[in-house]
Design goal:
Distance between the termini: 58 Å
Number of helices: 3
Helix content: over 70%
Order of helices and strands: HHH
C-alpha cells in the first residue's frame, strides 16, 4: 500500500468522520464551553487536513499555513479561557 492510497482510503475518511462528529457537537453543545472546545477541535482537524493535502501534493509551503492556523486557534482558546476566568472573578 503506497502513501497515496493510505491517505485516500484511511486518513481522509477518518478526518471526515471526525469533522462530522465535531460539527454535531458544535451545533448540539449544551454549553458555550462545549461549543468553543468543538470549534477549537474543528480548527485542529482543519490543520490536519491541510497537512495531509500538503503531503499528498508535495507542497511544503502549506505547512506554514497550517502552523499559523494552529497558532491562531491556540491563542483563541487562551483568550476565551482568560475571559471565563475574568467573568468568574467579577461574579
Amino acid at each position: 500500500m503506497s502513501l497515496s492510497n493510505y491517505i485516500d482510503y484511511v486518513i481522509l475518511p477518518i478526518l471526515a468522520v471526525s469533522l462530522l462528529l465535531v460539527f454535531i457537537r458544535l451545533f448540539k453543545g449544551p454549553t458555550t464551553v462545549d461549543r468553543v472546545i468543538a470549534l477549537d477541535l474543528l480548527i485542529t482537524i482543519g490543520v490536519g487536513v491541510i497537512t495531509v493535502y500538503s503531503i499528498s501534493t508535495r507542497k511544503p509551503i502549506l505547512m506554514d499555513t497550517g502552523m499559523i492556523l494552529a497558532l491562531i486557534a491556540f491563542l483563541g482558546t487562551i483568550a476565551f479561557s482568560y475571559y471565563l476566568e475574568r467573568r468568574r472573578k467579577n461574579d
